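REVIEWER CHECKLIST
Item 1: Sequence provided? yes
Item 2: Single chain? yes
Item 3: Sequence as submitted:
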Amino acid sequence: MSQSSANKQQLQDAFELFNQVSEQLTGSYQLLQQQVVSLTRELEAARTERHKLLSEIRALQQQASRGQRLSSMGEMTARLAHQVRTPLATALLYASQLKQADLRRDQHDCFVDRLLVGLRHLDHMVNDMLLYARGGQAGDEMVSAGELLEQVKQSLLPQLNESGARWSVRQADSGISLRVQREILASALANLARNALDACGRGTQLTWQVESRANTVCIVLDDNGPGVDAGLREQIFEPFFTTRPSGTGLGLAVVRAVIVAHGGTIELDGDYQEGARFLIRLPLPGAQQLPSGVLNNQQKAKLATSRYL
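Item 4: Structure as written out by the authors:
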């Protein structure tokens, strides 16, 4: 065979080999495309199932939380009955005194003031009971943290002025927006501040700070009071626990119930030594919050997977 014929045969063999490899690559590419489509469908189905499970878990958690609160209503009613009776009887007494025709102006004003104090106390107890029973629910109203804290301040102005308290907000991220039920969350934050005012007495310093961290907003309240004894730190958020004779024990329980219903957490900083410091964490709008058990399981799975990659 001549050299020319040999070269022609080699070239033909090379083309045939190229065609075979091209066909194999085409087949492999089509197979990979099919696998990608299949995996995409499986991933979408898994994602849909995951969202469904998370929704079911949240619904069960809300039902369990509501059941727990409702089971406490009997005890709450019994405890509130005698607490309501005293301020109610006092209010009725002062109201009856106002009917006297010869009542001096200073006596009239004194009875009115005491009547209002008793009625405000009753209103506060009823508000706490309703907030705790409802637990608060995550809302869809957008409000900045600064506006929310200003609303809380305005609702507490009489008590702030009466006790000579100082109120300050550190300008960090107070303009950041939250998606909440504004009135309910403002009432809960007012409960937290009112608790500090009651504990600290005159000359209270209330300092708020707002920061954004990752997918959460951190709202911090510092006071200059005596702090919380180490032995009581695990109990202060429990319903009906109080160290004050006239307290209902619902103030901080209401705060926690509302914060949790908004997908957040609240805790007492045990390391703070200059008073009491409460840290509230709420999700940023659009941030997906997972139940703690699911989150822990996902973190464990991620860690286990990383060990084999």
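Item 5: Key structural point noted by reviewer: The chain has a mean pLDDT of 78.
Item 6: Recommendation: ____
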